[in-house]
Design goal:
Elements: H1 2-16, E1 25-26, E2 29-30, E3 33-37, H2 42-55, E4 62-67, E5 71-86, E6 89-104, E7 107-119, E8 126-128, H3 150-176
Antiparallel strand pairs: 1-2, 3-7, 4-5, 5-6, 6-7, 7-8
Length: 178
């Protein structure tokens, strides 16, 4: 009996401290951050991430703040972030995101910090609260009508950025060690 209790406590502890590897959309908001295992020093990973921002500067990516070899905050944009049909036409928004990447030897933390949307051909910008998506849900907990593309857009944006960064860093690392 004691063994079962001990095993249960170990399982609960392990699952409590498990780190997310992908961003997920829910009524309570987006996953705060993910941790990516990446072989290398914090300094090398930081420099490769900096090169990724530079490579994507044509997309509007820029470092807004940084602590060398420890963390950086990046702002960028995504054309056609969220599109929906309205009156027979496709209406899309431009998404401006802010992410923060923290670096440690052997891993980095990728955090979704902010997101704002601006419909194409509009001057109105809506700042999204990434910690509360209740506006997209009905009282019964189901997604509101015409909002079924929203979760995929959020997840795709932040998971896509993380995967793009990882792919770029792997290619850069391979090129450095040819």
């Amino acid at each position: 009996m004691k063994l079962k209790v001990l095993l249960l406590m170990a399982f609960v502890t392990a699952s409590t401290f498990a780190q997310e590897t992908e961003f997920k959309f829910s009524k309570d908001g987006l996953t705060d951050f993910i941790v990516v295992t990446y072989e290398g020093s914090a300094k090398d990973t930081y420099n490769r991430a900096l090169a990724w921002v530079k490579e994507n500067s044509k997309k509007g990516y820029k470092v807004t703040s940084s602590v060398e070899n420890e963390k950086m905050t990046i702002e960028g944009g995504k054309e056609n972030f969220l599109c929906s049909k309205a009156g027979g036409t496709n209406v899309c928004t431009y998404g401006t995101f802010t992410i923060e990447i923290g670096f440690k030897d052997g891993k980095y933390k990728f955090e979704a910090v902010g997101l704002s949307e601006k419909p194409n051909n509009s001057t109105t910008t809506t700042v999204r609260n990434l910690n509360d998506f209740s506006e997209y849900y009905d009282k019964d907990g189901s997604l509101k009508k015409y909002k079924d593309d929203v979760p995929a857009a959020y997840e795709s944006l932040f998971n896509g950025l993380s995967k793009d960064l990882l792919t770029f860093m792997d290619k850069k690392k391979k090129a450095e060690n040819w």
